[in-house]
């Protein structure tokens, strides 16, 4: 949801194409995100954001989401390998696969943004959202041994 809204705002709103990002634009664009502070942190942590146009901003956001999906896939895989309960192990593996699939779709979205195929990029982002729409957060919260930072980082996606 976060990404789809941001991509929509960045790619479909009537800003001049040469508009470059600055802190004010970053604040405006991230204001509409589900978790604005995460969006702002993502953009401010990338040096390219200060000179990025709106496609560049969208690309940076998608890359942040892809990196987070990669981290979550690894966390879920690690939790699966240590789970003693067979059902929880299967759930962790499902979540890991979902985040891995999301990561692939987000990579596709980045490529499509660079090729100015914005509708295709949006479809890839929506597919990524569907890949991890497994409600992993609620599943994982029920497992008592899940690190809190893993659960928090999942909120970006759900």
TrEMBL record:
<comment type="similarity">
    <text>Belongs to the PMEI family.</text>
</comment>
<dbReference type="GO" id="GO:0046910">
    <property type="term" value="F:pectinesterase inhibitor activity"/>
</dbReference>
<dbReference type="Pfam" id="PF04043">
    <property type="entry name" value="PMEI"/>
</dbReference>
<keyword id="KW-1015">Disulfide bond</keyword>
<dbReference type="InterPro" id="IPR034086">
    <property type="entry name" value="PMEI_plant"/>
</dbReference>
<dbReference type="InterPro" id="IPR006501">
    <property type="entry name" value="Pectinesterase_inhib_dom"/>
</dbReference>
<feature type="domain" description="Pectinesterase inhibitor">
    <location>
        <begin position="21"/>
        <end position="156"/>
    </location>
</feature>
<keyword id="KW-0732">Signal</keyword>
<dbReference type="InterPro" id="IPR035513">
    <property type="entry name" value="Invertase/methylesterase_inhib"/>
</dbReference>
<feature type="signal peptide">
    <location>
        <begin position="1"/>
        <end position="21"/>
    </location>
</feature>
<dbReference type="InterPro" id="IPR052421">
    <property type="entry name" value="PCW_Enzyme_Inhibitor"/>
</dbReference>
<protein>
    <submittedName>
        <fullName>Pectinesterase inhibitor</fullName>
    </submittedName>
</protein>
């Amino acid at each position: 949801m976060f990404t789809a809204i941001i991509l929509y705002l960045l790619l479909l709103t009537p800003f001049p194409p040469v508009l470059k990002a600055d802190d004010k634009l970053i604040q405006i664009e991230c204001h509409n995100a589900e978790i604005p502070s995460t969006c702002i942190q993502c953009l401010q942590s990338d040096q390219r954001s200060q000179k990025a146009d709106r496609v560049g901003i969208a690309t940076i956001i998608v890359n942040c989401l892809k990196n987070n999906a990669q981290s979550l896939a690894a966390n879920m895989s690690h939790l699966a390998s240590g789970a003693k309960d067979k059902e929880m192990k299967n759930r962790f593996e499902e979540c890991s696969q979902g985040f891995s699939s999301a990561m692939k779709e987000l990579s596709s979205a980045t490529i499509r943004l660079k090729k100015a195929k914005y509708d295709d990029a949006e479809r890839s982002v929506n597919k990524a959202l569907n890949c991890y729409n497994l409600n992993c957060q609620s599943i994982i919260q029920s497992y008592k041994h899940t690190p809190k930072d893993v659960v928090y980082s999942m909120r970006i996606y759900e």
